[in-house]
Amino acid sequence: MPTPVSTARQCLTPEAAHALDEAVTVARRRGHAQTTSLHAVSALLSTTPSSSLREACGRARNLSYSPRLQFKALELCLSVSLDRVPSTQLAAGDDDPPVSNSLMAAIKRSQANQRRQPENFHLYQQIQQQSSMSCVKVELQHLILSILDDPLVSRVFGEAGFRSCDIKLAILRPLPHLLRYSRTRNPPMFLCNLTENSDPGRRSFSFPFSGFPWFFNGDENCRRIGEVLVRNKGRNPLLVGVCAHDALRSFIEMLQRRKDGVLPMELSGLNEICIEKDVSKFISENYKEEFMNSRFEEVGKMVEHCLGPGLVVNVGDLKPLIADDAASAEAANYVVTKLTRLLEIHGGKVWLMGTVAMYETYLKFLSRFPSIEKDWDLQLLPITSIRPSMGESFSRSSLMESFVPFGGFFSTPSDLKGPLSGSYRCASRCHLCNEKYEQEVTAVSKGGFSASVADQYQFSLPSWLQMTELGANKGLDAVKAKDDGMLLSARITGLQKKWNNICHRLHRTEPFPEADIHQVDSQVPAVEGFQFVEDRKENDDNYSSNNTYASPNGSGCKNVNSCMSMDLESISTSKPDVPFPMVSEPKNESLLSKLLEKSSRIKDLEPGDLRSPRSSFSNSSVGDGRTSPTSAASVTTDLGLGIFSAPTTKELKIPNQTHRELPKDNSLSFSANFESVNRSISNHQALSSSCSCPDFCGLFDPRDFKTLFRALTEKVGWQEEAISIISQKIACCRTRNENRHGASPRGDVWFNFLGPDRFGKKKIAVTLAEILYRSRENFIHLDLCSQDGMIHAKPIYDCQEMNGYNVKFRGKTAVDYIAGELSKKPLSIVFLENVDKADLLAQSSLSRAIRTGKFSDSHGREVSINNAIFVTTSGFTKGSKNLSSRKEITNCSEERILKAKGWPIQILVGCLDDNTRSCNLSVSVFTAKGISDPIFMNKRKLLSSNEILEQHETLEIAKRAHKASNMYLDLNLPAEENEVQETDNGNPDNDSVSENSKAWLEDFFDQVDETVFFKPFDFDALAQKVLKEISDSFHKIIGLECLLEIDSKVVEQVIAAACLSDRTRVVEDWVEQVLSRGFAETQKRYNLTAHSIVKLVTCEGHLLEEQEPCLPPRIILN
Amino acid sequence: MGNTLLEALNVRVIGSGEKFLVLAHGLGTDQSAWQRIIPYFRPSYRIILYDLVFAGSVNPDLFDFRKYTSLEAYVDDLLAILDALKVDRCAYVGHSLSAMIGILASIRRPELFTKLILIGASPRFLNDEDYHGGYELSEIERVFTAMEANYEAWVSGFAPLAVGADVPEAVREFSRTLFNMRPDISLFVSRTVFNSDLRGVLGLVKVPCCIIQTAKDVSVPVSVAAYLKRHLGWPEHGGKFEH
């Protein structure tokens, strides 16, 4: 039911009401029955002179289009959608078109949002007492934000290339004049407070983020200190730097405030004692030794009795310890010895921290106590940034938090943030829970159960709880936890360590994680926050009662929480490194299979020791990370829940889930998931076990040697011997397997292709896939050499697979890629090029696979290779004789062909009479290339041996060009060409392959079923053929008078294309259809005389779409 | 993983030598600053060029105000690039801010650097009791205030431009102001720089360093170069060049 405009206006501030009026005008003008969000957008975009929406669009727009274009597109899209709205005849004298339900809903949403604004909170509370909520006046900005949430509106923006989340961010981001919150009291710190100060007398706005560097630096320093503290070796940080002392102080302050967010989880609850003053007094004022002694005893006692991870002994500035006079030196000696003893006795529970302002001071200290670095297990930590000078309040505010009120706004964090923001998320996790942590501490101190301090950090990715449940461990652990608080805390520590590691991994070694990692991070804080909420409400020792996870009478939150405490138990013993490798793997499949594997492992473990589910779950949440949470409903709890739902399934995306439903849903969907995994895996197993002799359904009988041979020869005619061996072996293996009914019949066949002719090898492998498995899809291709080659300009040979590999499986190891592919398509040819370049992991994996018939990935998960055919290639042979790098006597080396790229081909026309160089600039480029490239000269000869040059006396040309080119020697040399050459010439595999891998290689080669030697492909013959083809065509069309020069690159490209192509007559066809047309066009356009030189060159710089060498569909004329 | 970073920071590897040479630009410029000297190094080095994240040529959205709060974050970037390129040894040329980054990077991973060439480096810009960094705190504050004023001008000039999107001139201006190095970023980075103090850690540098100091440097007094030379763990040469 549409709402009358007047009613809607009541909910709006004058500014917003004005906007609504404009929208109504638009709707009326268009004769529409209702005023919708689209009308509102139209009005917002066009009317107001300083339209904030328009301005936000300007900042949020896609950088790849011109702003003008994109605004035009937006207007167009908008008007189109408006046109689609059916217009109705308004009754004469009727009122304004009423506000549609969707727009009204947007207003309501913004009301709700605004109500949650902290700075409005007091205001609205007062109002609330007096009257109903409806009188919350919606401000324009909130209205815009809500309208942008409207699916219709976001579609329109989407069509114009905007993303509404970007626009929302732009609106929220600090262009301060947009944020007009009146403020009468000192509100909590929020983004808007930072960016605007509404007091008229003061500066009208401040720079965004201007307060940040200080406090974040503080956090940064603290974080780094924390990193040192958790290490096993060098765990006692010695801060070096002018501001080191300040950094230490802020670290200690942070410890005292229990602001553990910045620190690694396992350090939460760390105690601290400062002996700096005592030490300096003792040394400088000659205090009595007893005093110092009692102080140290005190410290020792503290260590013994302290809960949590331990005690930090803050020694402060080390300067007093290097005082010069004898008495002081003795005192310093005493202190140092005592401290050393303390560390010896209490080992893992005591940390020392100290500072020196200058490194030189440390050196002095070192010269006095030479073994101190070892005794104290010191780690120097350079501190270079000034400590936070802003108030504490700053550090508690974070962008993350400030966004919380805008529910749903953060639903796609990875969209909002560029790749550089990895650590940001990590940091924000900590910030998010700082505040809560403090409250928790208060609660706990009342409750007096110390273990739960750390407890709140148990984090855990929630759905895995259900795993715990599955493990039939219901309740046991939690009860135990209650009984033994100390044990709990110890376990928490382990758990924290693990999580901390995860966080660090993400944070440090992958400063630029991909989207899925963002997701993980963003989920984490929410879960914590959520859990905290519960924690607070909860009595510390009612774990057992909470543990009724599945019972419907507890609220959802409680259930989750109780499960979390169970997690805590189960995780704590797990190995810290299990989950990491998975984090970067977006593949659901592997995750799932891992899940299964984990769960099966559980069974092996003693009951109660559910280590694995946890890690598997963190994985699953990564995999499903795409399902980003929406949290349109109420503030903290909902946010937590919304995100909480994310790891499991998409169906949970619906906002406004009731609390009770959620955990259930999770468990349901999860177990469903799990089951399906089970099923699929078992299917898979069934499949692989049932068809140990793969069914090559019809079409082709693998036992038929002749059929196979014929099919292969058709494709790769020149490798007859090799083909014969291959097809024999395959036929033989298949028969063998069929006859064998042993316990583990092996269906896998291993080939090793040695020698040159990369094209041929690959073609045969592809053909095998086509024949045996009936599809090119069943061809898993990986070049083991390409993995390290980030900066090497890779040979363009077969880019598709390689690029696919690079893009999709970036960050995956080779074995993971292979295992993943194999689990997807068990019936495959696995084609591994340059097996001699395999890294250790791949080596061991391959060796195991060839022995056991199971291919294991980097996590030890195995995939059956029963139905696969492995083909490894190498230029390397048994006798360490390197075939591929042996001196090529041919003119056209395989390397050069492999390097060919898919350039467009261009015809240039030059004139013989003029100076060749000056008449056409591209000549010099052409020749310069030739010079840099020894092959060119060969090519020249090749050409001259052809009748083209024979018929024309002009060998001179070549000479002249040669001369000219000398001047251009290396300036035009493209860098990558050199590199490639370098790698080509400079990697005789004998050198690069270490002894170790050589041994492996020989061992491996011995085990393969068949080693096949390939003959070098006669590229020269093909080159001759190509040249002949081209020159024939040229002479036919242009005649014999003109001279044709062909860039060697053109020839190489044509050859490469011919080699890659499946058809036989590809070159002939191309010459006939494309090149000859180009010649004809040239003939028409230029008046070719006997003095003309026609040049066929590659046009580098514009690569054709696919990088693969191909024959360009048309010739460019110049 | 590294690829994203390499792309984002416009990493280029050029040249035909064997040894790696990293050229890192200073505040307010980008890798094009090296354009004129590249030809001299090209034949004998493989030159790694990259833009620091605040450079105008890098997508400003990638500048994370919460991450780049200290030089350590830039060091992370540099090391990540070198790791992604699988560089195991390299010489490093850093100008101003990048010189500081190089110092910190070499402290963290001394084995990675054969040599540091520090151009216009300063461990600390602010004056201290017995240290002349060239700036007084009050001066800095003035500079920042001026920058903020500029920012304000930028912001207030922004809206009218956005509206006049139909006027080509305005559009051009619009995009120009929008896509050059954002003033908020440059201010932020400047603050980070002025908040850094490397004096205490210079001794930790265990890599041969070469200090290049121009005679007329507005931001770094010559005394700073002397200070550097005195305190660096292993200064090899101190060069002084007239401009």
CATH topology of the domain at 2-125 and 197-242 in chain B: Rossmann fold
Total helices of chain A: the number is 52
Strand content of chain A: 5-15%
Query: From the 3D coordinates, which CATH architecture of the domain at 2-125 and 197-242 in chain B would you assign?
Result: 3-Layer(aba) Sandwich
Shape of chain A: extended
Q: Helix/strand-derived class of chain A?
A: alpha/beta
Give helix and strand order of chain B, one letter per element, not per position: HEEHEHEHEHHHEHE
Task: Figure out the total of helices of chain B.
Answer: 8
CATH superfamily of the domain at 2-125 and 197-242 in chain B: Alpha/Beta hydrolase fold, catalytic domain
Q: What is the radius of gyration of chain B computed over CA atoms, rounded to a whole number of angstroms?
A: 19 Å
Task: Walk me through the structure.
- The complex is a heterodimer of chains A (1118) and B (243).
- Chain A is extended, with a radius of gyration of 37 Å.
- In chain A, strand 3 (311-317), helix 16 (326-346) and strand 4 form a beta-alpha-beta unit.
- Chain A has a five-stranded parallel beta sheet, with helices on both faces. In chain A, strands 7-8-11-6-13 form a five-stranded parallel beta sheet, with helices on both faces.
- Chain A is built from 52 helices and 16 strands.
- Chain A is 56% helix and 7% strand.
- With 1118 residues, chain A is an alpha/beta fold.
- The longest helix of chain A is centred in the middle third of the chain and has 30 residues, at 661-690.
- Chain B has 243 residues and is of the alpha/beta class.
- Chain B has a domain at 2-125 and 197-242: Rossmann fold.
- Chain B has a seven-stranded mixed beta sheet, covered by helices on one side.
- In chain B, helix 2 (38-41) links the parallel strand 2 and strand 3.
- In chain B, helix 1 crosses helix 3 (71-84), helix 3 crosses helix 4 (97-108) and helix 5 (137-163) runs antiparallel to helix 7.
- Chain B is globular.
- Mean pLDDT of chain B is 78; it is low at 158-167, 173-179 and 237-243.
